[in-house]
């Protein structure tokens, strides 16, 4: 029995800031952002969206009534949680109209947690093949204005339906893990933005990839030539490129060119959104599947997941014959329709997020076109609304 990803769907903001414009405002050369970190646009998340609404907006469009009836496990992976106790998955399940008997949990390990959710869901469905699991990686990457990490911000959510006999990607059971206590990126409870040792974190990321990828090759007696494409967690797309380049000497010149060409497809959509934390790897996978016309059924795809702190995993999946049927086909068009905001408007929205206070608060949702929105806080409880009702 095959188990894997049956459907993928993505949600982000309807707003973005142009990276060349942001670079100019920060007195940096535009190519530092466009080429140096590999980003062209950055999603700007308005106050009316948070990890919960992004997750619900990502999942709802792909779910049929049959899917909803079969889902008995919902995992929301995030490092942008809205409560220190109550799982974001509880809110998401309510917004999506899932059955009250669904198991709902929130998972955290920096950017890696969505992969932990996928693997847990894979095992669950293998034991309960008539059931389905919904895994959502949802985050808003915030480092602060005028900080070194500012150009690697962004946000969005990737929803994945895990099932038996999946449409998109049948996952193997051959993953390699690495987990160690590394202080490359962290966010203490008293911080609203992350702390990061940027150069150190980049080096650890590449070290982890080389470790788990080469261990995989040794354990499986495999060769880099076995892979049609390698996909990466992309906090910014240049980081994934560096990781790929670090193992290209294992491939022939022809294979190197092919892997680099596939990588360009795999980072195309991430370049337009920015950092998604838990969802970054899976947006890259979706980008590859949507934009690379050379893919075919049974192609082997490698996936490298990384979460600072640090944990990494390399695993694989094979494309299924009808994989295009499970993809978010409208995503490129939605990204193209987003509204460009000025740097000043981006800064205003960044500073306008729901305040971490006990006071009642109201958020203006008039310009938010998404189905699920955050409308404020009353009696220290977040208030969500389905604008379709």
Features:
Peroxisomal Thiolase, Chain A, domain 1, acyltransferase, alpha+beta, three-stranded mixed β-sheet, HMG_CoA_synth_N, HMG_CoA_synthase_prok, 33% helix, 389 residues
Walkthrough of the structure:
Its EC number is 2.3.3.10. The protein contains twelve helices and 18 strands. The chain has 389 residues and is α+β, with helices and mostly antiparallel strands. A hairpin with an 8-residue loop joins strand 10 and strand 11 (195-196). Helix 3 packs parallel to helix 5. The protein is globular and about 60 Å long.
Write the layout of secondary structure elements.
Elements: E1 3-11, E2 15-18, H1 19-25, H2 30-36, E3 41-43, H3 51-59, H4 65-70, E4 71-77, H5 88-96, E5 103-107, H6 113-127, E6 132-141, E7 154-164, E8 169-171, E9 176-179, E10 185-186, E11 195-196, H7 198-220, E12 229-232, H8 237-247, H9 253-266, H10 280-291, E13 300-307, E14 311-319, H11 331-336, E15 339-340, H12 343-351, E16 361-362, E17 372-378, E18 381-386
Parallel strand pairs: 2-15, 4-5, 4-6, 12-13
Antiparallel strand pairs: 1-7, 1-8, 2-3, 6-7, 8-14, 9-14, 10-11, 13-14, 16-17, 17-18
Helix pairs in contact: 1-2, 3-5, 7-8, 9-10
Short recap of the structure:
This protein has 389 residues and is of the alpha+beta class. 33% of the residues lie in helices and 25% in strands.
Radius of gyration, rounded? 20 Å
Give the class from helix and strand content and strand pairing.
Answer: alpha+beta
Average of per-residue pLDDT values? 97
Task: Tell me the strand percentage band.
Answer: 25-35%
> CATH topology of the largest domain, what is it called?
Peroxisomal Thiolase, Chain A, domain 1
Sheet having the most strands: 10 strands, mixed
GO molecular function: hydroxymethylglutaryl-CoA synthase activity
EC number: 2.3.3.10
InterPro entries: HMG_CoA_synt_C_dom (IPR013746), HMG_CoA_synth_N (IPR013528), HMG_CoA_synthase_prok (IPR011554), Thiolase-like (IPR016039)
Pfam families: HMG_CoA_synt_C (PF08540), HMG_CoA_synt_N (PF01154)
């Amino acid at each position: 029995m095959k188990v894997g990803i049956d459907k993928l769907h993505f949600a982000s903001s309807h707003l973005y800031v142009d990276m060349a414009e942001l670079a100019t405002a920060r007195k940096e050369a535009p190519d530092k952002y466009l080429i140096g970190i590999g980003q062209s646009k950055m999603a700007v998340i308005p106050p009316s969206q948070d990890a919960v609404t992004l997750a619900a907006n990502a999942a709802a469009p792909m779910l049929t009534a049959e899917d909803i009836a079969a889902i008995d496990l919902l995992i929301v992976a995030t490092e942008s949680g809205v409560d220190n106790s109550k799982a974001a998955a509880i809110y998401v399940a309510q917004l999506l109209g899932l059955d009250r008997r669904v198991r709902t949990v929130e998972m955290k390990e920096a950017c890696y947690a969505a992969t932990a959710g996928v693997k847990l869901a894979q095992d669950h469905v293998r034991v309960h093949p008539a059931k389905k699991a919904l895994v959502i990686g949802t985050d808003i990457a915030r480092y602060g204005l005028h900080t070194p990490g500012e150009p690697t911000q962004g946000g969005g959510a990737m929803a994945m339906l895990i099932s038996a006999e999946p449409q998109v990607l049948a996952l193997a059971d051959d993953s390699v893990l690495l987990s160690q206590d590394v202080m490359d990126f962290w966010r203490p409870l008293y911080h609203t933005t992350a702390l990061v040792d940027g150069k150190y974190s980049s080096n650890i990321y590449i070290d982890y990839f080389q470790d788990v990828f080469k261990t995989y090759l040794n354990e499986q007696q495999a060769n880099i030539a076995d892979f049609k494409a390698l996909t990466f967690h992309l906090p910014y797309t240049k980081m994934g490129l560096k990781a790929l380049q670090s193992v290209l000497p294992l491939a022939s010149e022809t294979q190197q060119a092919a892997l680099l060409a596939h990588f360009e497809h795999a980072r195309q959509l991430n370049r337009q959104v920015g950092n998604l934390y838990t969802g970054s790897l899976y947006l890259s996978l979706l980008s590859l599947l949507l934009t690379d016309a050379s893919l075919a059924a049974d192609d082997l795809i490698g996936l490298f997941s990384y979460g600072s702190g640090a944990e990494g995993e390399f695993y694989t999946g094979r494309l299924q014959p009808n994989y295009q049927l499970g993809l978010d086909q409208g995503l490129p068009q939605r990204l193209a329709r987003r509204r460009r905001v000025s740097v000043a408007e981006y800064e205003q929205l960044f500073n306008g997020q729901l305040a971490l206070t006990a006071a009642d608060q109201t958020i203006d949702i008039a310009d938010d076109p998404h189905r699920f929105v955050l409308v404020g806080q009353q009696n220290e409880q977040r208030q969500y609304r389905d604008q379709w009702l």
